[in-house]
Amino acid sequence: MRVTFKVWRQNGPNTVGQLKDYEVDGLTNDMSFLEALDHLNEQLVLQNEETIAYEYDCREGICGQCGVFINGRAHGPHDNMTTCQLHMRSFKDGDTIIVEPWRAASFPIVKDLIVDRTAFDRIIESGAFISAKTGTAPEANAIPIPKSVADAAMDAAACIGCGACVATCKNASAALFTAAKINHLNKLPQGKAEQHQRAKDMTWQMEQEGFGSCTFTGACEVECPEDISITNIAEMNARRIKAKWLG
């Protein structure tokens, strides 16, 4: 299998980048997309050229670090899938595949396909935790939680923080990410004590990081590998308003 990769190359946030063409042969349908990039980098090493910088960790669709734009779509052509779960059988022999980093001012490019997503870390640090004494684990049924509530909390907790929602949003909004992190804890009894402060602090930090406003186009939900619903954003907005009224 032979394809042409058009890969974004950029040395840093303050340098000019460009798409560069690479013809790659010897690929197979069973190769993952990241294995194909590995194959390309091996080729570049043999040619004494600088390898392409990109991120990955788990290669199991858990961490989301692998996220890139592939042919104009976050994570590639399939719904609810991370880049590392994508295989070359999704492309045809002779295809041209355009690979770009996440595009958002709040995600400055570090190098090539790697972007700085520490803005997400700062949002988490601002309130995505509970203040509770640790110790012996309580009995499982000590705090009854309705199944519907537990399911909704776990659905929100499924967010892996990959940044696809930001990159695909025309406003570069982090509303879906922030909403998922707020709602996960605010739905559970353990998170109730700080629910109002959490809603205020995390949304404030989101704005300080320079992310855009949400206009409910739904693009984030479509590209989210965990299929997190934009109803979380509506719930976050309601929680934020309530928090302001209650101080």
Give a verbal description of the structure.
The chain folds into two domains: 3-110, Roll (Ubiquitin-like (UB roll)), CATH 3.10.20.30; 118-246, Fumarate Reductase Iron-sulfur Protein, Chain B, domain 2. It contains eight helices and seven strands, in the order ββαβββββααααααα. Strand 3 and strand 4 form a beta hairpin. The strands form two sheets. The chain has a five-stranded mixed beta sheet with strand order 2-1-5-3-4. It is 34% helix and 11% strand. The longest helix is centred in the last third of the chain and has 16 residues, at 231-246. It is elongated. With 247 residues, the chain is α+β, with helices and mostly antiparallel strands. The chain has helices at 33-46, 118-125, 147-157, 164-168, 175-186, 195-208, 219-223, 231-246; strands at residues 3-9, 18-24, 69-70, 73-74, 96-100, 109-111, 114-115.
